[in-house]
Here is the input.
Amino acid sequence: MLAVSAQAIATGKSLELAQEERGRAAGVGAHVVTLDDAAYPGQLKQIYDPPPILYVRGSVEALSKPGIAMVGTRHPAPCGTGMAERLATDLAAHGLVIFSGMARGVDTASHRGALAGKGCTVAVLGTGIDVPYPKENTRLSEQIVASGGALISEFPVSTFPAPQNFPIRNRSISGIAIGVLVVEAAEYSGTRITARCALKPSRDVFAGPGNVTNKNSWGPNTLIKQGAKLVRTWEDVGRNCPRMFDLP
Here is the structure.
């Protein structure tokens, strides 16, 4: 992507190519929001390297609402799936946007939980805005848009799911939210990258404790040991971070 940008500048065709890209985005039903647009989410501007462009399908306004990022393993135990879905349902029902990455496992459970809570959820993609990934989540992506949420990506239209894109998008998942909630994750994983990214702009980090014999509990248990806020129910998020929503 950097090479393409450099070539566009060198050939003097950057404006022409930008207009073409806007046309491609419009063709797949997406808006283009740039860093200097009023609609660009303020939370995301605070990180070290905010994406200069966001492609958005759905509600642009949803990006700037208070929310929490929910992340975790692609292969959770049944209890991890249940915890992610229950927490997302309750948090969304109490007004928080649920940000996640549309991946299999915890991400998918979090999006579904938010929809079940009649709330708002935003999927931060590691592909082009028109490339649902994984494909089995195509219907889920349409439900997110139809329910008042959004799909967003910093990658050009039609970008395929290259492995290197997902660590890049992780910093946007943590950056756009007020806090990050880790449900299940191995000790060394993309989820830990997201949690570390959250610490740089001083986001709150939460973690759901798990069985010490389950390797996917090592990540959240280690985060709790290092100072992350322990979460069992949605009220734990509110008590530890009241700026997200008002609690009695």
About this structure: Residues 1-11 have pLDDT under 50 and may be disordered. Residues 31-242 form a domain with the Rossmann fold fold (CATH 3.40.50.450). Residues 78-93 form the longest helix (16 residues). Residues 73 and 189 are 8 Å apart (CA to CA).
